[in-house]
Amino acid sequence: MSGTLVLVRHGQSEWNLKNLFTGWRDPGLTEQGHAEAKAAGAKLAARGLKFDIAYTSDLGRAQVTCQHILDAVGQPDLETVRNLALNERDYGDLSGLNKDDARARWGEEQVHVWRRSYDIQPPGGESLRDTGARVWPYYMHVIQPHVLRGETVLVAAHGNSLRALIMALDGLTGEDVIKVELGTGVPIVYRLNADSTVASKEILEG
Length: 206
What we know:
Blueprint: E1 3-9, H1 14-17, H2 31-46, E2 53-56, H3 60-72, E3 80-82, H4 99-106, H5 108-116, H6 128-148, E4 152-157, H7 159-170, H8 174-177, E5 188-192, E6 198-203
Parallel strand pairs: 1-4, 2-3, 2-4
Antiparallel strand pairs: 1-5, 5-6
Helix pairs in contact: 2-3, 4-5, 6-7
């Protein structure tokens, strides 16, 4: 019996548009972001996907994205679990700063290291490994059991929390995972075998 796991990064946020480090701050979606989330739902509806349960983070941009998707597939009242384990990586002192201003303050190389290394933390924040340390147990103990029972599960979250999850699912190294780019509002559909290995993966772009 194989279950289905659908991962979706939230639609474009106001701070994505302004090139700001967001982390645990909670800006809303832009008009484009709402459209991306609705389009993600339309793609999943076109595949005939129906969900048994949905998971999202403690942040509004992911929750609104999740609701747009559920509306589009005709399940607006589906049980949805919110948990900060799925929150975006905490950028600490960088949160709210323009990325160009951060480069001017700390230097291009240092900011690149903070953004794109696996295990180096920005000041007061989390590394991608730290993010994984809260995402992985939550997935293993809470989300994965539903999928292994043959259910179809939606996870609407963030670039780095989903990157950590993809690292585990795809068996990526720390060096591999920092190169993974996730588009806003692009569904990734995994089908898992009963032993939790990946049977197939499809990215619903375009």
